[in-house]
Amino acid sequence: MTRRFVSACSIAVLLAVSPALASATEIIIRASDVSTIRGNWHIAYDDTAAGGRSLASNDNGWSTTETPLASPADYFEASFSAPAGSYHVWLRLRATNNSKYNESVWVQFSDAVNGSGSAIYRIGTTGGLLVNLERCNSCGVSGWGWQDGAYWLSQASTIRFTTTGTHRVRVQTREDGVQIDQIVISSGNYLYESPGQLTNDRTILSDTSADSPSASQVGPYLGSPVRLPGRVEAENFDNGADGVSYHDATSGNTGGAYRQTNVDIERCAEGGYNVGWIQAGEWANYSVNVATAGSYIVRLRVASLSGGYLHVGFNGPSNVWTQVRVPATGGWQTWQTVEMPAKLGAGNQLLTLSYDAGSFNLNYIEVVAPTTSTAPSTSGGTTVTVVTWNIHYNANASYAQRAMDLLMALSPRPQVVIIQEAVRSQFNTYLERLKARTGQTWTGHFANHCPKGALSGSSCTSSEEEGVAVLTSLPVTSKSSRLLPYADAWHSARALVRVAVTVGGVQLQVFGTHLQPDQPAARYNSMSVVKSYAANYSRPQILGGDFNADPDQICSSSGMSPAFIDTWTLVGSGRGFTARTPSPTMKLDYLFTDAGKRANPTSTRVATTTGTASDHYPVLTTFSVR
């Protein structure tokens, strides 16, 4: 078969994307147009937001009320094209919990001037436009609302650009806990009036040129190529017209979600969105950047009633064009992962998906480094990603939210979360935050440790805040917990949690625990109880937790043998140190699979992107369950 890449032209440099113009005088910036996101800002899925996404900051109780920062840590930016002239600036905002402490931001520009021609609201200075959602003192806020300033200040909401060309807008934190989905910079319709209401607004301004961009608007949908290894969301195909960056056989977005192009997009049962109604002859391009040349595994998350075929290609530095079979998975939202090997060159290139035959849905494409392990074949298995993390005890709700944000930022994104030093009073906060970040419903089970002196036989006479939790977006069939009745300096017994989930029609038992520090005998005895307890339940099984001992103290892998096998010994690389951050010297955290290995690890790593949020790093492992 002749290798064919579908693109507008062969170019070595990928073009930067600019936000679409609703008309010659209306500049509309959405979350998808933002090219730079730093610190406490992230893109959040939101059905009420323009394009299904907003820019959101976590509510950590932080604010600065005087001036913006010349060098902020928390901000986002977008570039846009505009002719010289005067413009009115509007933002559509929403405050977390409709709180007046979560409703304001600073807005700055690269080259704005005021009516007298003097620099105003410049990036890199302590000057900025304060946009505060509440319209008057104690008026309150409710839902989305449009605002252009702050009721107690006299400040210009109209700016000027003296030159035609590319300009830059920066939004930085004033009060965290804010969401923003649209920025309007208008010299026409909204020069003198608001695009919508101050409260409970539902105005989504039309992105009228989204399906017919100019050549300067062809390029990565999120502003820069997706870095690989990593995940490419199917709905984030490149900006560009039909026939340039994609081709779809039908007019309009049948699913009506996320983007207004001809590609059909809908909400996905696994969270976020998926491309659906795929037909033979359709295709899509994705700008990617491969960090290092080498051999990789390409995974496609698919769902189909009847199956089909597609070609996967990488051009430029790579030379890949491979056909992949899509199996019949049993339903349009019954997801399964299929894989293909690929040898990729380093650098910017286009990932092309060309749909050959059949009808199927696509959630994402994931590129991972292969393992050199001799682990058994995963043929016929369903992929599930699990993370275990000692999140560090903190009873503050904002920290609970931050911890979940960090976990959901991992790639691949975990479907099962095992956390130690979890807080009882924040259990619902964990679940709500996970739902907010993924669009999925999360459930699970929490069990607290038993306080000192409170263990009576096999039961605890009082409870405490600290414990262990298993959280999951997968269907839960049963759950339980028990105590490990061996004391340490802080507790008279430690907790063991079990949650049974369904993975591709298979019941998977997930266990989580946190063993005793500085007590080798208590740890070994606890491991014996864990193995005995797990023997009462079906296989396959996964066990994760903080075992509180480096191999130079006791060998946790030996302690869990022969019932469980440390996944690091199967597919891990290096020492696997997890504590203490930021320069770990010990391996304390483990993910085990049962000796039958029907939950077979295919990759595992220590995730360092959580920084010093905890004194431990998470361990992230992907399993093929069969």
How many helices does DSSP assign? 5
Task: Pick out the low-confidence regions.
Answer: 1-24, 208-216, 371-379
Counting copies of identical and different chains, the oligomeric state is single chain
Largest sheet: 8 strands, antiparallel
- Total strand count, please? 40
Give Rg in angstroms: 26 Å
* Mean pLDDT metric: 87
β-sheet strand percentage:
35-45%
| Structural class by helix and strand composition | mainly beta
Task: Report helical residue fraction.
Answer: under 10%
Query: Which shape, going by the Cα principal axes?
Result: globular
Key words describing this protein structure:
globular; 626 residues; 8-stranded antiparallel sheet; disordered N terminus; single chain; mainly beta
Structural summary, described in words:
Helices cover 8% and strands 39% of the residues. With 626 residues, the chain is mainly beta. Strands 1, 2, 4, 5, 7, 10, 11 and 13 form an eight-stranded antiparallel sheet that branches. Strands 29, 33, 34, 35, 36, 37 and 38 form a seven-stranded mixed sheet that branches. A hairpin with a 7-residue loop joins β4 (42-45) and β5. α1 crosses α2 (427-438). It starts with 20 loop residues before the first strand and ends with a strand.
